[in-house]
Amino acid sequence: MKKQHVTLTDADRTTLEALLAKGTLAVKTFKRATALLELDRGKTLRAIAETLNVDYNTVAAWRNSYRSQGLDCLYDAPRSGRPIEIDGNQRAYITALACSDAPEGHARWTLHLLAEKVVEAGICESLSHTMVGKILKKTN
Questions:
Q1: Which residues lie closer than 8 Å to 24 by C-beta, 6 or more apart?
Q2: What is the C-alpha to C-alpha distance for residues 114 and 44, in angstroms, rounded to an integer?
Q3: Per-residue confidence band for 3, with pLDDT thresholds at 50, 70 and 90
Q4: How far, in Å, CA of 134 to CA of 123, rounded?
Q5: Any domain includes 1
Q6: Please, what's the b/e burial string for 78-106 (b: 16 or more CB within 10 A of its CB; e: otherwise)?
């Protein structure tokens, strides 16, 4: 008999089978759940990698993360991403300013003019005209 790489608990096995029976899983989650079940059934890492069309090392990484995290390994960890530079209140101010009357000497607001006024008012430390355009594009 081949070496069993993972031994699932009854609860974990039931959970994985229920997830796969749902039919509405993300591909990543489906592949990870399938790999864990196949490892529990005694399949080799190489056989699972060929079946799921992934690399051998990927299946080994899934196995290792199951051992350390349990079923949490099925889902990706949240990513930090880029921090928000302009919050909702600042966006609202920019939108309200764009909807107000243009300053004296100007027929209408330009993106450059809006960016300058927002920085002058101390709403943002710096703001480009392209960012003003993006903010206004998202409003109706």
A1: none
A2: 62
A3: low
A4: 17
A5: no
A6: eeeeeeeebeeebbebbbebbeeeeeeee
In the listed set 21, 48, 74, which residue is the last one of a domain according to the structure?
74
pTM above 0.70, yes or no: no
Whether residue 57 sits in one domain with residue 102: no
**How many structural domains compose the chain?**
2
pLDDT at 52 over 70: yes
Residues with Cβ within 8 Å of residue 84, at least 6 apart in sequence: none
CB-based contact 32:61 (threshold 8 Å): no
Amino acid at 93: Y
